[in-house]
């Protein structure tokens, strides 16, 4: 689980900065929001999920972590494509943007519940 998130994070990082570079070169910033979310929900968040599951392997093999994994991996590309399509005038893509966003939010809630179940405060402060 941790390794999969870290590898996916690396892929999103490359896509995110290539988008930023392209936007800068062609001076078209319409996809700035997609670029920002690919970098933050793709690269930064997934890298943190990866390190968390690596640090707490008992949290990585749970129903919550598996649900989180699939909700984030399916939700994020659907959300990004939905926002990008809307930016280019396809109003019907709103549903995809919302559905993808809800999947990501649900996944993050599952992640947070899992985190609170497995991070032992006494152990962390020792
Ligand atoms: C070489 C790497 C990168 C390049 C070339 C790049 C380029 C850009 C460009 C051209 C913009 C649009 C600026 C504008 O609208 O005036 C932008 C916006 C932004 N970038 Fe990047 N970026 C890079 C990496 C990152 C990373 C790593 C993050 C986050 C972890 C990030 C987060 C953002 C955010 C939050 C915005 C504002 C989005 C908005 O206004 O809607 N960028 N970037």
Task: Outline the fold blueprint.
Layout: H1 2-26, H2 32-55, H3 57-60, H4 63-87, H5 94-118, H6 121-125
Structure description:
- With 126 residues, the chain is mainly alpha-helical.
- The protein has one domain.
- Helix content is 86%, strand content 0%.
- It contains 6 helices and no strands.
- α2 (32-55) packs antiparallel against α4.
- The longest helix has 25 residues, at 2-26.
- The radius of gyration is 16 Å and the shape is globular.
- Bound molecules: protoporphyrin IX containing FE.
- The site of protoporphyrin IX containing FE has 15 residues, from α1 and α2.
The helix/strand class is mainly alpha
Mean pLDDT: 96
Largest sheet, in brief, is: none
Bound molecules: protoporphyrin IX containing FE
Could you estimate the helical fraction of the residues in percent? over 70%
Give the domain tally: 1
Care to count the β-strands? Answer: 0
Strand content: under 5%
Radius of gyration, in angstroms, nearest whole number: 16 Å
Low-confidence residue ranges: none
User: How would the global form be characterised?
Assistant: globular
How far apart are the first and last residues' alpha carbons, in Å? 27 Å
Question: What is the H/E string?
Answer: HHHHHH
| Secondary structure tally, helices | 6
Which terms would index this structure?
126 residues; mainly alpha; 6 helices; globular
Question: How is this structure best summarized?
Answer:
This protein is mainly alpha-helical and 126 residues long. Helix content is 86%, strand content 0%. It is built from 6 helices and no strands.
């Amino acid at each position: 689980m941790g390794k999969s998130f870290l590898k996916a994070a690396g892929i999103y990082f490359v896509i995110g900065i290539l988008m930023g570079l392209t936007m800068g070169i062609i001076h078209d910033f319409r996809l700035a929001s997609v670029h920002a979310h690919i970098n933050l929900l793709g690269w930064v968040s997934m890298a943190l999920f990866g390190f968390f599951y690596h640090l707490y392997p008992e949290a990585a093999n749970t129903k919550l972590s598996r649900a989180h994994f699939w909700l984030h991996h399916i939700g994020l590309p659907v959300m990004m494509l939905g926002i990008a399509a809307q930016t280019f005038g396809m109003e019907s893509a709103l549903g995809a943007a919302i559905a993808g966003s809800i999947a990501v939010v649900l996944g993050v809630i599952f992640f947070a519940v899992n985190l609170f179940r497995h991070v032992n405060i006494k152990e962390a402060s020792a």
